[in-house]
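Feature request, filed as a ticket because there's no other form

It would be nice if the structure record came with a short human-readable summary line next to the tokens. Right now we just get the raw output. Example of a typical job, pasted below so the devs can see what we mean:
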Amino acid sequence: MHLTLQCCYAREVWHLSLGANSRMYNGVSSASSVSDWWKMLCTQRGAPARTEEEITLSAYIAWHLWKERNRRVFEDKDLTPRALVNMIRDDVTLLSEALRPTHTAEG
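Raw output as currently delivered:
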């Protein structure tokens, strides 16, 4: 939980990715466990339903935070929070483009 949601580095990445006033960021900061955070993310609980884009972005942020931890431990390299956010945005954009329906000419 600490690695993905609570450490200073993770909080900075979440803040840069979502903004301090984002309902997604507020959900991150109020979760007591990763499991609780994921349940809050994927259910309504009195708030508007999370969009598929919000859930996808949150999953990518958590995954990239884990990958950054591994980069630091196993490769002795690190990225700034801003560089990691840029990498996350690039990946989410690439995913979005890959999932975009293609139009083919018939005939």
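Something like this underneath would help us a lot:
The first helix runs from residue 2 to 6.
The CA atoms of residues 42 and 50 lie 7 Å apart.
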